[in-house]
Amino acid sequence: MLLLWTVNRGFHHELESLDRLRHVPFVRDLKYTSVQEGRDPGYDGKLEITTPHGRFQLLLKAKRSYLSHSTVSQLLGWLNHLRTDRTQGVILLARHIPRQAAQALIEAKVNFMDDAGNIHLELGDAYNWTAIGLPAPEPVSERRPASPAQLQLLFQFVTYPESVNWPVRRLESAAGISKSKAAQARRQMVAEGLLTRAGRRYHLGPISLMADRLIFGYAQVLRPTLTLGTFRPAEKTTESFVSRLRMNVLPGVQYSLTGSPAADLLQHFYRAPEVTLFLKPSSPAIAQQLRLLPDREGPITILSAFGDLVFWEEREHQMLAPPWLIYAELLNSKDPRAHEAAQEFRSKFLAW
Fold it and tell me: Alpha-carbon distance 66 to 94, whole Å?
């Protein structure tokens, strides 16, 4: 059985949420074991549930973002990638699971429980307990949302872990933020547990905490601030546009592919017709020179390149964004196949 764990506060609150499972009549005992530090097997711990007629083993996946429609799609894509043993079940712990999301999870045979008391727990053929439709609890004090500068710096740190100890003047050009914002963001990360500090040295915190911050922050905060717009190319296909871009890049213009086309060049697992690229400089005039026409439904999205970080590595004569940005862009897609591809991509390129 697999446990997906979505919470929005610290470890002690997570244990309190997990303890609510003890109120289910057929749950006799719970035993949780965390994943060994330094490993990223795709889940965050193991849970054993004892019932009157036996024990059920669960894997535990920790997420700390709110459960939106896109989050449900991402979780199901991740599950399709991970669920190789068809005898395994799934359970999700969340802050709140709306009725529509609950129905989708039940249909997908995903168990769940949230802070409000919504629950669906089915263990084998003997045990089934369901209650949905309870409203979200009143919010408690939340952490300050991440700023674009903090997210840019965090993408820098997970891409180049040694850069956590770089001087701020070097982080300025790498992450595309000012020296003062780099210093402030690093202090904030220490306060929130994303970084730890021993003497003058910094170290990255738990991968699950950083991954959730990156994925949620990219979709909700960073990407909207970077988006110049969506466009359609002069060519009939995006592949033809990308080929032209590779052969005839404008003088003084830099670009890097992210999302589906970048993942395809690295892994050849999934390719969508949409293309997202970082561009420097990023302006409507440059887009016009690239023979791109503004189109709300266009298949090409241009993002402003925010630092040296986005120009990661060249593959097949195409510059690519770093893997964590590629992964976040895949999860931002509305296509469930992109979410499944994201999990395949993470298992190969984002091992911690």
Answer: 8
The structure's pTM equals 0.69
Residue type, 305: A
pLDDT value of position 276: 97
Q: Would you say 280 and 304 are in contact if contact means Cβ atoms under 8 Å apart?
A: yes
Q: How far apart are CA 85 and CA 16, in angstroms?
A: 29
Q: Which of 119, 1, 127, 142 is nearest to 58 (CA)?
A: 1
For 135-189, the pLDDT digits (tens) are 876 554 444 568 999 999 999 999 999 999 999 999 999 999 999 999 999 999 9
Which residue is it, tokens 């995903």?
110
* φ and ψ of 161, to 5 deg: -55, -30
Q: How far is CA 42 from CA 2, 28, 76, 278, 289, in A?
A: 11, 28, 14, 28, 43
| CA–CA gap between residue 327 and residue 34 (Å, rounded) | 24
**Contact status, residue 185 vs residue 153, Cβ threshold 8 Å:** yes
Dist. CA 352–CA 349, nearest whole Å: 9
Contact by Cβ (8 Å): 114, 135? no
pLDDT in tens, 248-257: 888 999 999 9
Residues with Cβ within 8 Å of residue 312, at least 6 apart in sequence: 159, 256, 319, 320, 321, 322, 323
Residue 26 burial class via C-beta count within 10 angstroms: exposed 0-12, middle 13-18, buried 19 and up = middle
Both tokens of residue 197? 């500090």
